[in-house]
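Your task
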Amino acid sequence: MERHYVGSEIGQLRTVMLHRPLLSLQRLTPSNCQELLFDDVLCVERAVEEHNQFAQLLRDQNINVLLLGELLAETLQNTEARDWLLSAQLSDYRLGPTLASPLREWLADLPADQLSRYLTGGLTWQEIPETLLKSRTISPMQSPFITRPLPNHLFTRDTSCWIYQGVSINPMAKPARQRETDNLRAIYRWHPLFQDNQYINYYGNEERRYDHATLEGGDVLVIGHGTVLIGLSERTTIQGVEFLATSLFHHQQANKVILVELPKHRACMHLDTVMTHLDIDTFSIYPEIIQADMPCWMLTPDGKGGIKHHSPRPLVALLEEALAVTEIRFITTGGDIFESEREQWNDANNVLTLRPGVVVGYDRNLRTNEKYDKAGIKILTIRGDELGRGRGGARCMSCPLERDDLEGVRS
C-alpha cells in the first residue's frame, strides 16, 4: 500500500490529520462568530479538552494522529515555503505595499511555531510592532484583524481530501475558509512527510481563481472499488465536481462518481452531515434528506478525456452496484421526529469509521447511538458539548491520510 492512500471510508484507518483549536476559538466573539461560520461562541478550554479526548481515543486505537498546526510549523522551517505562504496570505493587494512588505519581513523572522499560530489563529494590529505602522498615514482598516482567524481549520476533512492515491486541495466556497487552502498547499508541497513521496494532486493546487468551481471534503465519500460518492451541497458545485471527476478519470484512480443532490442550507451543509459509511453494506442516513430511492446521477469517463453524465438511478441501486453487495442497510437517525432532527443537527450521522463496524461519535446523540449498537455497529463516544456547537462531528474533524481499501473487508 502507498504511504498516503485512502482506499475506502471503512477500511482500517491508519493515519489521520486533526487540528487542535485554540487561538482561533479564543478570537471568536458574539460580533464576529457568524461571519466566521460559527453559530455561537464556544468555551475554549472545554473545546480543547474534548478535542484532546478525541485525539487520544484515536491513538488508543493505534491510529497515527498528526496535528495540522505542528505540520505547518515544521513546513515553515523551509524558507521557500515560508516566503510563498506569507506572500499568499499577506499580499500587497491585501494590505497595500507600504505595509505588506515590512510585515512579511517581520513575520518571516518569527519562530516557526509562532508564525504557524498566527497563520491559523489570525493576526491583530495590536500584535505587530508600532514601527510597521509609521509609514501608513491613513489609519488601518476598522477590523481588529490584519488576517482573520481560521476556526474552521478544526474541520480538516473539508480543506483537503485524499482519494485513492492522491489528494484534492479544495477551493473553498466561503471567504472565511479560503485561506485554509493555502496552508494545506504549503504543507503538501514542502513538508518532509509529503515532499519526497509520490502522490497525485487532483484539483485545487494551481494559482488561479476557481470562481464557482468550489469543492469541500465533507461532500466526498471514497466508497471503494474505484467509486467516489459526492454531495452537491451549498459548498460543493457541479463545476467543482466535474473538474475533480475529470482528474480522477485522467489519473485512472476512479471510474465512477455518484452525485447526490442536497438542499442548499446549513443544516446539511455537507453530505457527511446526513450520510456516512459504517460497514461494507451499512450507511447512516438522516431520512428527511437521504432516501434509498432518491434519484442520483453518475459520471464516468467518456473515452475522450472528458466525462459522461448518465440518467438518474436510485441511490440504493448505485451503492449496491458499486460495493458489489446484494442489499444495503440504512440506519436512520434515532428518536421521534423532534429527537431525530435535534440529533442530526448535533452530528449524529457525522461519525468517523475506524474499521468496518467501529465508529466514533458524540455521546450526546443517545437515540442514534442506541440504533447503531442494536444494528451491530460499535460506537466509541467522545464528548461534544462544545465542539459540536461548531456544527461538525468526528468525520468533519478528521482528514484521513492513510486508510485501507475494501480488500479483505467482509462481504
Residues 44-60 form the longest helix (17 residues). The longest strand covers residues 295-301. The radius of gyration is 21 Å.
